[in-house]
Specification:
single chain, 103 residues, alpha+beta, two-stranded parallel ribbon, 3 helices, 31% helix
């Protein structure tokens, strides 16, 4: 990801978001699913799961990058892809897929 100094520039030149731009240019793409993690939500130190309405952000680069992914997906869903046939969704998974992950 890269920052741009003005919002208008992101509409005129969104090349930094290559996945979404590639999908926009490909007529066969119907769905984009971005999978991040529950670590994109601000840590509340509680024992239950986080909800979609929870505040994004934590204090480490990994979690921040996942929050950024949620934000850029939302931006594309609500701007460039709002009137397209492409459906966009995000899913947040914990470390529950596959074996051998003891983290």
């Amino acid at each position: 990801m890269a920052a741009q100094p003005l919002v208008r520039l992101s509409y005129d030149n969104p090349v930094q978001v290559n996945l979404f731009e590639a999908a926009r240019a490909c007529d066969s793409v119907e769905v984009i699913l971005i999978v991040t993690t529950d670590k994109c939500c601000e840590n509340q130190d509680w024992h239950w799961g986080y909800r979609e309405s929870e505040r994004l952000g934590r204090h480490d680069p990994y979690s921040s990058s996942k929050a950024c992914s949620e934000l850029i997906t939302s931006a594309y869903r609500n701007s460039f892809l709002a009137s397209s046939k492409i459906k966009v969704a995000t899913a947040r998974a914990g470390s529950v897929i596959g074996g051998g992950d003891w983290a």
